[in-house]
From TrEMBL:
Native source species: Rubrobacter tropicus
GO terms under biological process: intracellular protein transmembrane transport; protein targeting; protein transport by the Sec complex
Statement: the UniProt record of this protein carries the keyword Iron: no
Keywords: Cell membrane, Membrane, Protein transport, Translocation, Transmembrane, Transmembrane helix, Transport
Main localisation: membrane
Regions crossing the membrane: 18-36, 114-136, 142-164, 176-197, 203-226, 263-283, 303-321, 358-380, 386-408
Gene3D superfamilies: SecY subunit domain (1.10.3370.10)
Topology of the protein relative to the lipid bilayer: Multi-pass membrane protein
InterPro entries: SecY (IPR026593), SecY/SEC61-alpha (IPR002208), SecY_CS (IPR030659), SecY_dom_sf (IPR023201)
Family the UniProt entry places it in: Belongs to the SecY/SEC61-alpha family.
Name by which UniProt lists this protein: Protein translocase subunit SecY
Length: 427
């Protein structure tokens, strides 16, 4: 691996891409420490908004601590991710967007433009909600004494921070190496690792650290195994005449990934279950007897109801998002039109039913795996007396490992184009 990195550094184009990616990520991390205008300096020296609340934990992990620092990137890239997921779901439901998705690069550019507009709208809404949160005691009362003009400036600063982060991600995708949005999230998560390790060293014993290290190795190995796992459906193409030419038949395969939904179901499920908690902290006013506070208490992250609903929602969302990603009927029709068929299965409807059955079985394994990765930290933390130190450990590992594998593949392809031996050796 080190030799492959050395080879990549010798290629001028790859060296420029790596340096450009590192520079953009460094600028993003710098924005996580630039405070918002109008913030009380005495608040910045405290523990940040929300303390150990669920809201602070979620936003703090995915923004690299920018939320806890009252920084201009407090919203991170989350509005763009939400907009992209919603647009992907709407592409399946709205015929006009379906037509655009089939128009090639021009249609995709139009969908990307709609996603940016949607991101801007979401950023404005979430920035306004964030201002109310920062004014409340749950948010540290950082903007309690701010005037109307100051609040407007903060709202536009947060919105601009989201759009700037989105632009940085797109720059990395175009001129750097890897998927820019994914790399920004990964950089945010990894930036919190030193603080988590320091907290573990201060509060945990050597036995606890050894157990966590072994669990981390096992979880990472399992994530790689499931992410790379696929069911290969054999496809045979018959000889056929196209115009004056006779196309050769052959045998290939259709890869169906075990974890086709990625980390999206975990994000969906955690956001949905945290919604009552967010409402309680935003609008509950800190009153423990209010309806919102009692509702948020029902979804206590240490309780069995939360873990059961969390796992159930992850499994449901995994099936839902996989159905959005892969349409068996459409793939069966495409195979039939191109003269391909699954050996032993009749083309058309029977092929669609066969693909659907196979996908249902392998998705069950992927969904259960995602649920286990998500809830294992909640079970391990109290057993080892760690509190909420590794609350998002499973989800964070899933994101970091998945993005790392994708980035390695891209660097591998760039090296193979230049006749270098890459990271993934073929045997």
């Amino acid at each position: 691996m080190l030799g492959s990195l050395a080879n990549a550094w010798k290629v001028p184009e790859l060296r420029q891409r790596l340096l450009f990616t590192a520079m953009i990520l460094a600028l993003y991390r710098l924005g996580a420490y630039i405070p918002l205008p109008g913030i009380d300096p005495t608040v910045l020296s405290g523990a940040g908004p929300g303390g150990n609340s669920a809201v602070a934990g979620l936003f703090g992990a995915f923004t690299g601590g920018a939320f806890n620092n009252f920084a201009i990137f407090s919203l991170g890239i989350m509005p763009y991710i939400t907009a992209a997921i919603v647009m992907q779901l709407m592409t399946v439901a709205i015929p006009r967007l379906q037509e655009l998705s089939k128009e090639g690069e021009a249609g995709q550019q139009k969908i990307t433009q709609y996603t940016r507009y949607f991101t801007l709208a979401l950023a404005l809404i979430q920035s306004t909600a964030m201002v109310f949160y920062f004014r409340a005691p749950a948010g540290g009362s950082a903007l309690a004494g701010a005037g109307v003009l100051d609040l407007v400036v903060v709202i536009f600063t947060l919105t601009t921070g989201v759009m700037l982060t989105m632009w940085m991600g797109e720059l990395i995708s175009q001129r750097g190496l890897g998927n820019g949005i994914s790399l920004i999230i990964t950089a945010s998560i990894l930036s919190q690792a030193p603080f988590a390790i320091r907290s573990l060293i201060e509060n945990g014993s050597i036995l606890v650290m050894v157990i966590l290290a072994l669990l981390a190795v096992m979880i990472i190995a399992a994530i790689v195994f499931v992410n790379e796992g696929q069911r290969r459906i054999p496809i045979t193409y018959a000889k056929r005449q196209v115009g004056r030419r006779m196309s050769q038949g052959g045998t290939t395969y259709l890869p169906l990934k075990v974890n086709m939904a990625g980390v999206i179901p975990i994000i969906f499920a955690s956001s949905l279950l945290l919604f009552p908690v967010i409402l309680a902290e935003f609008a509950g006013g800190g009153n423990p007897d209010s309806f919102l506070s009692r509702l948020a208490g029902f979804f206590d992250t240490d309780g069995a109801p939360y873990l059961f609903l969390y796992a159930l929602l992850i499994i449901m969302f995994t099936y839902f998002y996989t159905a959005v990603q892969f349409n068996p009927v459409e793939h069966a029709d495409n195979l039939k039109k191109s003269g391909g068929y699954v050996p032993g299965i009749r083309p058309g409807q029977q092929t669609a039913l066969y693909l659907n059955n196979v996908l249902t079985r392998i998705t069950l394994f992927g969904a259960v795996f995602l649920a286990l990765v998500a809830i294992v930290p909640y079970i391990i933390s109290p057993l080892l007396g760690l509190g909420q130190t590794i609350l998002l450990g499973g989800t964070s590992m899933l994101i970091v490992v998945g993005v790392s594998l994708d980035t390695v593949r891209q660097l591998e392809s760039q090296l193979m184009m230049r006749n270098y031996e890459g990271f993934l050796k073929k045997r």
